[in-house]
Amino acid sequence: MVSKKGQEAVGMSFGMIFAIFLIIVFVVIAFIAVKSFVDLGEGASIGIFYEDLQKAVNDAVRGQESDRDFEVSLPGDITRICFANLSARITNTGADYDAIRNYDVYDANTFLIPPEKAEGMQWKNIDRINVTKITRTKNPYCVDVDAGLKIRKGFYDRLVWIE
After folding, report:
1. DSSP H or E stretch at residue 8
2. Cβ atoms of 70 and 83 closer than 8 Å
């Protein structure tokens, strides 16, 4: 019989190479799946932020007066929240305005900076906020996420303003 030791060695290494290749493929697919779930969670937290803000505004409108803090919970990539009336005169030009100025075609008054990190939810129209009063001195009026928001409504006010 003829010895096939060289052929067996090549056959064994091919099997090992194929197994290592499959392990690498499975690990890469697992990382992609985990990243997509994390991205999904970040998008959900942005949606929850908008819902919670609208709920807090609605609660303030129902009351006679309001002066409460609103804790902001957004993904770490979002650094600022801006309130703007993009159809009015812009008095606060700069990086924040440059980031949101293209959204003037939408019926929106609340924007997240930087917009590319907002998972497709860069803007939202929050009902019952007095954007004219919010943007009286600065349009757009922007707040750092870490600072949080203060929701206010006076006794004779129909709408809420945010500081």
Report:
1. helix 5-62
2. no
Give the C-alpha separation, 18 to 24, whole Å.
10
Q: Which amino acid would we find at residue 131? A: V
Unique residue bearing structure tokens 């803000």: 53
Give the pTM.
0.78
- pLDDT tens per residue across span 18-67: 889 999 999 999 999 898 887 777 778 999 999 999 999 999 999 999 99
3-state per-residue secondary structure call for 61-130: HHCCCEEEEECCCCCCCCCEEEECCCCCCCCCCCHHHHHHHHHHHCCCCEEEECHHHCCCCCEECCCCEC
Which of 139, 141, 138, 128 lies closest to 88, judged by CA? 139
Domain locations in the chain as residue ranges: 5-162
The answer for residues whose C-beta is within 8 angstroms of residue 141's C-beta and 6 or more apart is 82, 83, 84, 92, 134, 135
pLDDT tens, position by position, 77-100: 999 999 999 999 999 999 999 999
Instruction: Please check whether residue 153 is in contact with residue 160, taking contact to mean a CB–CB distance below 8 angstroms.
Output: yes
